[in-house]
Design brief:
heterodimer, A: alpha+beta, 12 helices, B: 303 residues, alpha/beta, four-stranded parallel beta sheet, 9 helices, 44% helix, elongated
C-alpha cells in the first residue's frame, strides 16, 4: 500500500498545476456551501441574541421590522416619530422599566443614540475609560468608534447635519466625550450615546444663547414677549460657562423619540402591555423584537434553499469536470500503466494506483475545505458584527 | 457540664452569624439623594436609619441655585431614589443627565396649582452668580398643605423601595402629617391679622405661603446681609407707595440691626420668615417653621 501511495504522490508532484487546480476545485466545492451555512446560522444567532435581550419595543404604528432595525441596530428607517408623552404614560402604568430611544442623527456615519442611563444598566454596558454622561452636550462612545477614530475621554465629536440643504434645520453640536464603553461585540460598539435631552438640543428643541441685551438683536417686543432676530448667537457646544443658558422650548411631552424599550416586571405586565397596544385603534404598537427578527431572518434567508440548489448544481458540474480530468489523465498514463503490468503489477494493485490519485486529491481538498470552515466558524461572529 | 460545653460553640456561632447578617443588611442600605433641606428632613424622619441620605449642597449655599459638579451629579445618578422638589426648583437638573425612572417628583400632586412668576429679573448675590427667580415659584413647602403632599410622595417612594419597612414609614408619615397640620393651623391663626393686607418681603419666595394664608406679599430683591444704600431705600419707598398702609417687612434670614432700625424709621416692623430651603445652623425644619409662626405672632399679636 505504501508503494501505491508513493507512486500516486510522485505522479501528483510531477503535475503540480493540475494537482493544485483539482485540489482547489474540490476544496471550493465543499467549502462554499458550508461557509454559507455558517454565515447564515451565525447571522441568525446574532440577530436573535440582540432581540432576545430586548423584551418589548413600543413605537409608532407601522412596520415592526423597521422599528426593530432602528431600535436594536440603529439603522436609519422612515418612521414617524413617537411623542415623549408615550414614555410618561408607560412609566405611570408601572408595568416595568421604560427606556426611551432617539435615533435620528449621526456623527459622520456613527448613529447618535439619545437615551437614559438605564440603557447602559440593562445592556450591561460600562465605561472602560472615563464615565457616563452627566450633563447636556456629553457623550459616551462605543469601543469601535474610539478605536477607528482615535478618540478618547476629553475629545470632541461633532454631530453631522441632518440635511445639508436645510439651513434652518438641526445645528451641528460639538459634544464632549466623557467615556469609552467596553467592547460589547454588538451594534453598541459603533454608536455615540447621549442623554435624550442632548438629542433634543441637536433637534433644535433646546439651545443656549448669549444674553440678549443689545437692541439690535430685538426684532419686536410686545405684551406676548420679546422676539430676537437671527443675529442672536446660539451656542454650538455646551461648556461649563454656558451650560446654564441652555433651556427647552415648547411642551416636552410633544418632543420626538424613536421608540421605547420596555422591560416588563412580570409576564402579567408583559401581557397587559401587549394587550394595550394590540388594538387597531391604539396610537402605538408593541413589538416583540424576537418575533420581528425571526420574520426578518425568514425573509432574508428564504433564498438559502435557492443558493443550496445552486451550489448543488455547481458541485455536480465540478464533480463531472474532475472526473473528466481524471479519465483524461488515465488515458495519458496508458503507457505508464502498461509498463507497471509488464513489470508484474497485478490488476487489483493497478486499480488501486489509478484510484489513489483521485483519493489523495479528494482527501486534500476535503481537508482544506473543512479546515477553512473551522477557521470561519471562529471568525464569523467578528466578521458579521462588523457588517451588521 | 458536657451539654453546656457543647452549647458554647453553637451560641458563639449563632451570635457571629446574626451580627454578620445585620452588618450585611445595613451595608446594603439604599441611597436616597435629596435636593433641598425640607425633602432631606422628610426623608430623615420617614426612613430613619434605614437609608443613607445623599445631600451634597454645601453649607451657606441656597439649594435653589446650587450647581453640582460632574462628580456630584455622578453620585446622584447612582442613588436608588432622587427626591426632587420640581416646580423649576432644581435649575441644574434641566441640563443634567438624570435617571428619570429613579426621580421622585414630590410636587406632582399639585403641579396644576403651580404659580407662574411673571417678571423674572436676572440678578446676582453672594458667590452664586447671576440667576433669576423666573419660571415657577418653587418654595412649595411654605404652604404646609403642599408640604404634607410632598411628604406623602416621599413616603410612597420609600415604601416602594423598602417594602419591609412599609408599616414604619407609614406610621411616621402620619405623625409628620400631624405636625404639618399643626403648623398649618398655627400659621393660619398667626396670620389672621394680616388677612387681605399686604406685607413687604426681602425676596420673592413667599408666593405659596401668600396664597395659602391669604396674605398679599410685595417683594424686593434684598439679602439680609446686604447694605441698605440710597438705591435700596428708594426702591423700598417706591414699594411702600405702591402698597400704602403696609406695616411689616418679612426677611428670609436674620437682618442686621441697622436694617431693622432703618425700616423701623419708615414704620416697618421686621419679621424673620425663614423658608428653610437650606439646612439650618440649629434645630430642624419643624423647629424653624415653629419659630416663623412665633415671630409672626410676636409681631402681630395673633393667636
Amino acid at each position: 500500500m505504501k508503494g501505491i501511495l508513493y507512486l500516486a504522490w510522485r505522479y501528483l508532484c510531477h503535475r503540480p498545476l493540475r494537482t493544485m487546480l483539482l485540489v482547489v476545485t474540490v476544496a471550493l466545492t465543499i467549502f462554499l456551501p458550508l461557509a454559507v451555512r455558517v454565515f447564515v446560522e451565525e447571522s441568525g444567532r446574532l440577530l436573535r441574541l440582540r432581540a432576545e435581550t430586548t423584551p418589548l419595543l413600543v413605537g409608532p404604528r407601522g412596520s415592526s421590522v423597521d422599528l426593530t432595525l432602528a431600535s436594536l441596530y440603529f439603522l436609519p428607517q422612515q418612521l414617524e416619530p413617537l411623542e415623549f408623552s408615550a414614555y410618561n404614560r408607560l412609566r405611570a402604568a408601572r408595568q416595568g422599566l421604560v427606556v426611551p430611544l432617539h435615533v435620528r442623527f449621526h456623527a459622520e456615519g456613527a448613529p447618535i443614540v439619545g437615551t437614559t442611563l438605564s440603557y447602559f444598566e440593562r445592556r450591561g454596558l460600562e465605561p472602560a475609560e472615563g464615565r457616563l454622561f452627566t450633563r447636556l452636550g456629553d457623550c459616551v462612545i462605543g469601543a469601535e468608534i474610539a478605536r477607528e477614530r482615535g478618540l478618547g475621554v476629553g475629545d470632541r465629536i461633532i454631530s453631522s447635519p441632518d440635511n445639508v440643504f436645510d439651513l434652518g434645520g438641526a445645528y451641528p453640536l460639538k459634544m464632549r466625550v466623557t467615556g469609552v464603553l467596553a467592547e460589547a461585540n454588538n451594534p453598541d460598539d459603533a454608536a455615540v450615546f447621549v442623554d435624550v435631552n442632548t438629542a433634543w438640543v441637536i433637534e433644535g428643541l433646546a439651545h443656549g444663547h448669549d444674553d440678549a441685551e443689545e437692541d439690535d438683536l430685538v426684532l419686536s417686543s410686545d405684551e406676548e414677549g420679546v422676539r430676537f432676530n437671527a443675529a442672536l448667537r446660539e451656542y454650538s457646544e455646551v461648556t461649563d460657562e454656558n451650560v446654564g443658558t441652555f433651556h427647552f422650548h415648547g411642551n416636552r411631552n410633544t418632543y420626538p423619540i424613536t421608540s421605547l424599550i420596555v422591560f416588563p416586571e412580570s409576564d402579567k405586565a408583559r401581557a397587559i402591555l401587549l394587550g394595550r397596544h394590540g388594538g387597531g385603534d391604539a396610537a402605538e404598537q408593541a413589538v416583540i423584537p424576537a418575533e420581528a427578527v425571526e420574520k426578518l431572518a425568514e425573509t432574508l434567508f428564504s433564498t438559502r434553499k435557492l443558493v443550496f440548489y445552486g451550489f448543488l448544481a455547481l458541485a455536480l458540474a465540478s464533480a463531472v469536470l474532475v472526473v473528466l480530468v481524471f479519465l483524461l489523465s488515465l488515458r495519458l498514463r496508458q503507457r505508464e500503466m502498461t509498463t507497471y503490468r509488464k513489470i508484474g503489477m497485478g490488476g487489483r494493485r493497478l486499480l488501486c494506483l489509478k484510484l489513489a490519485d483521485a483519493l489523495v486529491v479528494a482527501t486534500a481538498g476535503a481537508a482544506i475545505a473543512l479546515g477553512g470552515v473551522r477557521v470561519l466558524e471562529i471568525f464569523a461572529p467578528r466578521i458579521l458584527q462588523s457588517l451588521l | 457540664m458536657k451539654t453546656k460545653q457543647h452549647l458554647k460553640p453553637l451560641v458563639f456561632a449563632t451570635a457571629v452569624f446574626t451580627g454578620l447578617s445585620a452588618l450585611a443588611a445595613e451595608a446594603g442600605k439604599p441611597v436616597i439623594a435629596t435636593t433641598n433641606y425640607p425633602l432631606t428632613y422628610f426623608t430623615e424622619r420617614l426612613a430613619g436609619d434605614h437609608v443613607d441620605i445623599l445631600y451634597q449642597v454645601p453649607e451657606g449655599i441656597d439649594p435653589a441655585f446650587w450647581k453640582p459638579t460632574d462628580a456630584q451629579v455622578e453620585k446622584i445618578q447612582k442613588a436608588d431614589l432622587i427626591m426632587m422638589n420640581e416646580a423649576t426648583y432644581e435649575k441644574w437638573a434641566v441640563t443634567a443627565a438624570m435617571p428619570l425612572e429613579r426621580m421622585v417628583d414630590t410636587s406632582l400632586g399639585f403641579a396644576d396649582k403651580f404659580i407662574e412668576t411673571a417678571d423674572a429679573t436676572v440678578h446676582s448675590h453672594g458667590a452664586q452668580g447671576l440667576h433669576s427667580h423666573g419660571g415657577t415659584a418653587f418654595t412649595t413647602w411654605l404652604d404646609f398643605g403642599q408640604a404634607a403632599q410632598q411628604a406623602t410622595a416621599v413616603a410612597e417612594a420609600l415604601v416602594a423601595e423598602l417594602p419591609a419597612r412599609a408599616a414604619e414609614v407609614e406610621g411616621e408619615l402620619e405623625r409628620l402629617k400631624e405636625d404639618l397640620a399643626g403648623l398649618d393651623e398655627a400659621m393660619k391663626s398667626a396670620t389672621e391679622p394680616w388677612r387681605g393686607k399686604t406685607v413687604l418681603a426681602s425676596h420673592p419666595v413667599y408666593q405659596y405661603w401668600s396664597r395659602a394664608y391669604g396674605v398679599e406679599v410685595a417683594a424686593l430683591l434684598w439679602e439680609p446681609e446686604m447694605e441698605l444704600d440710597e438705591d435700596a431705600l428708594s426702591e423700598l419707598d417706591k414699594k411702600m407707595k405702591e402698597n400704602p398702609g403696609t406695616e411689616y417687612f418679612i426677611w428670609e434670614g436674620n437682618p442686621a440691626e441697622s436694617h431693622v432700625s432703618k425700616l423701623k424709621a419708615k414704620g416697618l416692623t421686621s419679621i424673620v420668615l425663614d423658608p428653610c430651603g437650606a439646612r439650618p445652623d440649629e434645630g430642624d425644619f419643624l423647629g424653624v417653621m415653629k419659630a416663623n409662626v412665633a415671630n409672626i405672632r410676636a409681631a402681630t399679636g395673633g393667636k
